[in-house]
């Protein structure tokens, strides 16, 4: 029996022993509730099994079971098969005398965008790839890695990107990184050394991108968007000679950069001697539209192409890549070497094997089908229960934008939904938005859970919030 369980006995026994025999169940329930509310039982702590706690307290097992069931129903505890009963997160009250108690929060339904289904991670195939990748490494390859990346992985990536994304690159042009933000950081450092002082970004984007660029000493120039993506004429007016774009699936709006805009962007880069940093974060997932080749193929000397496994496998893998123009490659690789000596060879070898043997393609086919079913379930539930919340950006990716009735404060609504156990992100969190909306990720929930999520949304907003959006959006 662990020390955690004995602590539970010391915490609860006084209340139980002083209660009349017929009131011990109620006393246990109140003692547990008080311990959770005051933080003496912290969020996430695993409680003893009903059998263990009953033995500790000298009560019937059914007494403990009834108390657990009641507090689970009230939101103080969370019970999951295989992991026991735990204290719910976010329930602790303010200390006595410092303010009113908080209500126990219901378990969050995770609808924030930006993550794939971690349950879909191919654990068995990845373990096999890890074993095979390690077995295939020479002793010398267990030394410090090539800062540009394992040669075998760079060759596989060059072939894959040419086949799937229309990227024009040989293995020598690929640099393996820990993900998109490291790739942008390396490029930013090189651009700063070359005299760049500003970088343009899409006016709606991940706000951490602003912080990253400012950390490197850049002024950030937002560029307007419309239904065709980035406005290249507006980009020219910023005077910046570098821009970060999500051309295949704009984040967060979900629009694709129009073919004419893609050509105009490549032409701008050539005229300005500029650099397009193409963040191709989830382009593999498309459902109702033809695939779009990367912008990099239009101007390889002026586009740095970025990819990542964070949206297709899991962020925990920490692998990404860049295809870097020849003029920047040596400086980028040297920066990478000085920064962290390179990415783990073991991880690279595993992914190289996974890619070479077709495991990655199979995973993408399977998860594309899964995510399409989840998207369809979300859209069907919205059409039935919240028909005036208009979805956009639905043809690809792992999230949708839900336009709200005009005049809605999307940030206030997102906070209200969080209080009701629903985690979303307001569109205004990404920058200046032309209409109020919330951004909803659907990859982590089953179709059944998505139907439940929309029912919770409908219950949380109530009839007064649900109105008609006025006219088509401007973007």
Automatic annotation (TrEMBL):
Q: Which CDD domains match?
A: AAT_like, WHTH_GntR
What Gene Ontology molecular-function terms does this entry list? transaminase activity
Q: Which residue numbers delimit the HTH gntR-type domain?
A: 22-90
Alphabetical keyword list: Aminotransferase, DNA-binding, Pyridoxal phosphate, Transcription, Transcription regulation, Transferase
**What domain of life does the UniProt record list for this protein's source?**
Bacteria
Which SUPFAM superfamilies does the record cross-reference, listed alphabetically? Answer: PLP-dependent transferases (SSF53383), Winged helix' DNA-binding domain (SSF46785)
SMART domains tied to this protein: HTH_GNTR (SM00345)
Please report which protein family the annotation says this sequence is part of.
Answer: In the C-terminal section; belongs to the class-I pyridoxal-phosphate-dependent aminotransferase family.
Q: Which PANTHER family match?
A: HTH-TYPE TRANSCRIPTIONAL REGULATORY PROTEIN GABR
Name this polypeptide is given: PLP-dependent aminotransferase family protein
Lineage, broadest ranks: Bacteria, Bacillati, Actinomycetota, Actinomycetes, Streptosporangiales
